[in-house]
Design goal:
The structure is a single chain. By secondary structure, this protein is of the alpha/beta class. The chain contains 16 helices and 14 strands. It is globular and about 60 Å long. One of its GO terms (molecular function) is nucleic acid binding. This is RNA helicase.
Length: 384
Amino acid sequence: MADNDDLLDYEDEEQADQQTADGASEAAPKKEVKGSYVSIHSSGFRDFLLKPEILRAIVDCGFEHPSEVQHECIPQAVLGMDILCQAKSGMGKTAVFVLATLQQLEPSENHVYVLVMCHTRELAFQISKEYERFSKYMAGVRVSVFFGGMPVQKDEEVLKTACPHIVVGTPGRILALVNSKKLNLKHLKHFILDECDKMLESLDMRRDVQEIFRNTPHGKQVMMFSATLSKEIRPVCKKFMQDPMEVYVDDEAKLTLHGLQQHYVKLKENEKNKKLFELLDVLEFNQVVIFVKSVQRCIALAQLLTDQNFPAIGIHRNMTQDERLSRYQQFKEFQKRILVATNLFGRGMDIERVNIVFNYDMPEDSDTYLHRCDFLNAMQPITY
């Protein structure tokens, strides 16, 4: 973590002066909700008074009732309140900012009104697809995704000829487009960070985020979401926000992975492959994700599984962006049932059919284990 001295402190000078003058007065109560949000709420999405076009898309997706996180956040988010939300993966955090920003969106001109940033290209691609899914009945809404590894000229052409109202991307590419004056954020109304801790804990990525933030209007909505938010990173997040509503999952509930069956198999290194093949033969699974610790092991294990007639595919950071997205789509569309991946894949990914995850190599810390094992609702982590 970098020192807080280099952070942008986003606070009105007038508010600061007022706080100094009224130092003896009682502080205003914070809007904060805490709990373990794992259930579905009895209310319906119609209770949020969303646009008919959005409700129609929600019905098409098969959603009837919001999760507890959605029930707590969406009513305030649609009113433009800043939101800081930490809840484990699979609880519907993405839908909070997608639905809230679409509800407030009035795309009357060729301006960027919504900016969503995340730390990986795959997650950016997935979020853009969620926007497309929920906005399909909203005429004229344009969504674009920008990230590194693709020709920047294509992004510049999109911004010039068909300026999107919603931009999703990674900080590096977004900053490059802002610095080149191709991406104009003067009309921005919503600034969102998904998996915000991964961006703000990295000094380089945080500097990119801060520089982008400085190029946005003062009076905008800021929302940040993550499956893990340490007590150290929360004040950093709030530097960007004004009196946010805070929704935190209890740390104890976060780490216990409620509802998941976890199995540990003690093996020597040269025994792992045989045991993996045995388990894949006897376990009933829809789709499987196998996490390894390096690119070389990812390539080797994916090839070995294919040689043993298991329908496997690998994803790692040494691939071209087109290849990574192609393989992600193949797995998501059920063309392959087994995915071998490094930690690059786990965080923020949402593949409905996965019901078993193998930790072929143990992660180095508990947060990484959490994200490997908790990016979906119902699965059985098996660790070697």
